[in-house]
Amino acid sequence: MSDLDTTQSQPTKRASLGRPTERSWFLSGQTDSTEPTRQFEILGEQFTIGRGRESDLHLPAGSISKEHAVISIADDGTLVLRELGSTNGTFVNGKQVHGKTNIKENDLVHFAAIVFRVGSKHKNDSIAHNTIHEDVCDQALAMIQFERLISDGGLYPHFQPLVRLDDQSRIGYEVLGRSRLFGLQSPQEMFHAASQLNLEAQLSEAFRLRGVEIGTAFGKDTNLFVNTHPSELDRPEFYDSLKELRKVAPEQMVTLEIHEGASTNLAMMRELRAVLADLNMKLAFDDFGVGRARLVELGEVRPDYLKFDMKLTKNIEHAPAKRQELVALFANLVNNLGIKTLAEGVETRECHDILVQMGFQLGQGFYYGRPSPLSKYTSEEASLRPPQSTTDTEFPVVSTETV
Question: What are residue 377's DSSP bridge partners?
Fold first, then answer.
């Protein structure tokens, strides 16, 4: 097994046998979700795939058989895939392989649930031609991996601190969706794939559940702010998902964020407010100030938190005085309604200071901390603990983070 070096051309083993090749074949993908996407060049007469360490492509997953499949290069330079009777099967473009089959460039090959794209480099291919093919096929690869994202531990949530502005103490974290799967690392990529399958609501539910499962390591008194997708709000399953969330973390402080545009549906908001009260969860309106939300709705159904969109608060220290006066007026009106005001997009000390003067109570942004995995915060806490006495019994530290 070798990573394909895209900066240097390497002779394949077949070339060393005196049969020159016009192309170099490779498989593009991940051996597991903790590793980056890589390209594995197909070398030799028999390129073996399996769980066994002696395999040319070693896939250390329980779903992979020790000897799963083998790829060979035919005399005419084409690829032949042979299934070796694996337990969970081998599939090409979604169809299961029995015995041998030819595979070609841009085919998607599953070894059990692990997916690779077949690629090749031709001597006369233009860069633009390769890029177009790779972009289209990598989107398909991301789509195929979407099931792993939701059901097979592919989600890897990050957490961003929310702080009190008066002393910058942390009151909680917003749960943000991330993944290590190829083509699905960012929320934009994940929701793009979900939209193609009409699964945005299911993805949003999975984000919340996974984030709270991991976030309980912060302690029950840490407020976890979890998000919703607009497509969820009209689904009867939405309330069931909130009840399931409470079962997973019965005592955890949880705040549900709703996009401010949803606040105009007063009947739905009243029902949601009642459900959240029964579940002992808080409510936040997100992205306030740039959409359709009006102050009258805040009087009808009051959230516990109002997050001002960063388009209003980011770099507010450089905004004209009239705009600063308007934002301060909004903040004080909301404070007078008994709603906690939270400014998003805080990136500098100067921005922090002026938001304090305006009357904002809470803040979020890079100035207080970037979105990070749980391990960052657990290592911070460990560094702040006093050293143990040499007479204390030492126990190994076990990470509470699940990948």
Answer: none
Nearest Cα to Cα of residue 52 among 64, 37, 70? 64
Other CB atoms within 10 Å distance of the CB of residue 308? 30
Residues 6+ apart with CB under 8 A from 257: 174, 225, 226, 227, 228, 284, 285, 286, 307
282: left (phi over 0), alpha (psi -120 to 50) or beta: beta
Helices (H) and strands (E) in the chain, counts: 12, 19
For residue 161, give the H/E element and its range: strand 158-164
Residue 16 has pLDDT above 50, yes or no: no
Residue 142's pLDDT is 64
34-66 confidence digits (pLDDT tens) = 677 788 999 888 999 999 999 999 999 888 999
As to burial, measured by CB atoms within 10 angstroms (0-12 exposed, 13-18 middle, 19+ buried), residue 167 is exposed
Q: Are residues 242 and 283 in contact, defined by beta-carbon separation less than 8 angstroms?
A: no
Which ranges of 290-398 does DSSP label H, i.e. alpha helix?
295-300, 310-313, 321-336, 349-358, 374-384
Q: How far apart are CA 183 and CA 164, in angstroms?
A: 36
User: Among residues 385, 382, 374, which one has the least CA distance to residue 216?
Assistant: 374
List the Cα angle 197/115/139 in 5-degree steps: 45
145 within 8 A of 185, measured Cβ to Cβ: no
DSSP 3-state of 175: strand
Structure tokens at 329: 């007026």
- Indicate the residue type of 123: K
Element (H, E) at 259: strand 254-259
Of the candidates 399, 337, 295, 362, which has an alpha carbon nearest to the alpha carbon of residue 160? 362
